[in-house]
């Protein structure tokens, strides 16, 4: 706010207006300071708890593999908290209660080196005299391509004017991890290996050792933690882009999460949200939550009002009462009849499957059509099949005893018939929820490798990075090339232009 040079010239009304603006400004600053201090207190408390797990007595119930996974999660969590504290603090960032770190050893001299020079655009001083080079600063960054380490040697020459003694030097290039040794390419390699290839850090440590340089998993964990914090604004932008769609898929799957305080794992949940496969813009956002409570879905969707494709889980019901329209999943309904037909050769289930098969025949026919064309064909061909199926189910339900397996299968579909057939009236709506189930499959594969999430924060970080990795894959991108470019550009990217780095909008930086 720019104050007038002389307040004496202001009228009483102008003074009152100015005073009100100043009071509002002070109140806004007070609220911001209160939020920052509250968040700092929360993070400091979380840091203390994590360090107590780190330096306290190890649980005898954890085997060596489980202990390794716990340790790498703790290292990443501590680095992430320190990064968040640094962003919140107005003072120069210092790690909370951080032990004195040993001096970093120089990178091995036998590694190939690429020299990158950074010099001023002009060697002419402002006084008009020609400057001379008097020295240089050198910083080395560790890079990696699969199987091979190399070193980027950044040389920043020092130039001085002999007349006026002005000293100039090219600025230090911005990096995601300030004063760290990894290039964006190495960071991308660690993230993709961990979250796309499902390689825990202790396995990556062994892979890097075979390539000629042993990188401790504690160091790798710190890199992962900082990258998770720095990438979060991009994930938030991806979520906002997703919520602009009128039809979304949603599904959830259990994930084991370690509870170090109780020396065992407990069940947490990964939620997945994505637009339909009919959309040209592809993407998925994962949300890691400590439970399956419906409040997590409501918190993610917030004020979004559209059509949600999901199963019959009760956690979504509250959203349906707040403006969200339910779209049922025909695949879930079909699955119940398929099990009866496969296991017991049920004739009722077999006939029902034949009807549902005809509905899917129509879907294969309209898969590449426009929404309007898709709706018209559905009305012409699928509507009659759906009506016949509904009548068949009602007639058969009257013939089977209550409580039987076939009665339960029929009741599931009949009670949800309106939601199951809403897709017929909307060319943008799919017949089932299989698309989002396919997006959850990478987590199911990963569970056999990383066993459990090391903490709630670790699960949330995995969900964030995997949202970007999987969205990149859905848009036909190489996740390593994508993340490398994003990590190179992120430190200097304007907050207002962060959405330009989303997978469906990303274009490689000009060489």
Describe what this molecule looks like in 3D.
It comes from Pandoraea eparura. Pfam families: DDE_Tnp_IS66 (PF03050), DDE_Tnp_IS66_C (PF13817), LZ_Tnp_IS66 (PF13007), zf-IS66 (PF13005). Residues 42-116 form the Transposase TnpC homeodomain domain. The protein is α/β, with parallel strands linked by helices. It has a domain at 330-425. It has helices spanning 12-55, 64-88, 184-195, 201-210, 217-242, 294-301, 317-320, 330-344, 347-366, 371-397, 405-415, 417-421, 434-450, 456-474, 479-489, and strands spanning 113-118, 131-145, 148-161, 167-169, 247-259, 264-275, 285-289, 307-309, 325-327. The chain is globular and about 100 Å long. Mean pLDDT is 84; it is low at 57-61 and 92-99.
Give unreliable regions as ranges.
57-61, 92-99
> What value does the average pLDDT take?
84
How far apart the termini lie comes to 41 Å
Largest sheet descriptor: 5 strands, mixed
Q: What is the strand content?
A: 5-15%
Strand order of the largest sheet: 7-6-5-8-9
Total strands: the figure is: 9
H/E series? HHEEEEHHHEEEHEHEHHHHHHHH
Backbone shape: globular
């Amino acid at each position: 706010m720019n104050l007038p040079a002389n307040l004496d010239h202001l009228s009483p009304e102008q003074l009152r207006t100015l005073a009100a603006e100043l009071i509002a400004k002070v109140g806004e600053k007070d609220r911001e300071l209160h939020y920052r201090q509250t968040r700092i207190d929360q993070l400091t408390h979380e840091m203390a708890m994590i360090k107590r797990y780190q330096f306290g007595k190890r649980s005898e119930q954890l085997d060596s593999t489980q202990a390794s996974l716990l340790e790498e999660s703790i290292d990443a969590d501590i680095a992430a908290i320190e990064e968040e504290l640094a962003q919140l603090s107005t003072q120069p960032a210092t790690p909370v209660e951080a032990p004195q770190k040993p001096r970093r050893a120089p990178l091995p001299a036998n590694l190939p080196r690429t020299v990158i020079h950074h010099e001023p655009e002009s060697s002419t001083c402002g006084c008009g005299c020609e400057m001379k080079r008097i020295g240089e600063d050198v910083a080395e960054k560790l890079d990696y391509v699969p199987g091979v380490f190399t070193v980027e040697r950044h040389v920043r020459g020092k130039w001085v004017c002999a007349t006026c003694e002005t000293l100039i030097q090219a600025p230090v290039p911005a990096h995601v991890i300030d004063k760290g040794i990894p290039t964006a390419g190495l960071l991308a390699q660690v993230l993709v290996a961990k979250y796309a290839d499902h390689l825990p850090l202790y396995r990556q440590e062994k892979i890097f050792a075979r390539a000629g340089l042993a990188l401790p998993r504690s160091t790798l964990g710190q890199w992962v933690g900082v990258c998770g914090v720095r990438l979060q604004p991009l994930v938030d932008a991806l979520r906002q882009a997703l919520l602009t769609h009128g039809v979304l898929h949603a599904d959830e799957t259990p994930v084991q999460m370690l509870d170090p305080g109780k020396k065992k794992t407990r069940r947490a949940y990964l939620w997945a949200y994505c637009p339909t496969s009919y959309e040209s813009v592809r993407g998925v956002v994962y949300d890691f939550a400590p439970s399956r409570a419906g409040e997590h879905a409501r918190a993610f969707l917030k004020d979004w009002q559209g059509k949600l494709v999901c199963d019959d889980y009760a956690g979504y019901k509250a959203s349906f009462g707040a403006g969200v329209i339910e779209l049922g999943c025909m695949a879930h309904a079909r699955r119940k009849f398929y099990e009866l037909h496969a296991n017991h050769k049920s004739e009722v289930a077999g006939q029902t499957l034949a009807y549902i098969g005809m509905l899917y025949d129509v879907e294969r026919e309209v898969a590449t059509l426009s929404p309007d064309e898709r709706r018209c064909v559905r009305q012409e061909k699928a509507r009659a099949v759906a009506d016949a199926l509904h009548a068949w189910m009602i007639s058969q339900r009257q013939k089977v005893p209550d409580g039987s397996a076939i009665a339960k299968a029929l009741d599931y579909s009949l009670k949800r018939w309106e939601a199951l057939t809403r897709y017929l009236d909307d060319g943008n709506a799919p017949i089932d929820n299989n698309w989002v189930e396919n997006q959850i499959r990478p987590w199911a594969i990963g569970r056999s490798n990383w066993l459990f999430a090391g903490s709630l924060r670790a699960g949330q970080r995995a969900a964030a990075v995997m949202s970007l990795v999987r969205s990149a894959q859905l848009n036909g991108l190489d996740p390593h090339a994508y993340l490398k470019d994003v990590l190179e550009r992120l430190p200097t990217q304007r907050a207002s232009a962060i959405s330009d780095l989303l997978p469906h909008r990303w274009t490689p930086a000009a060489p």
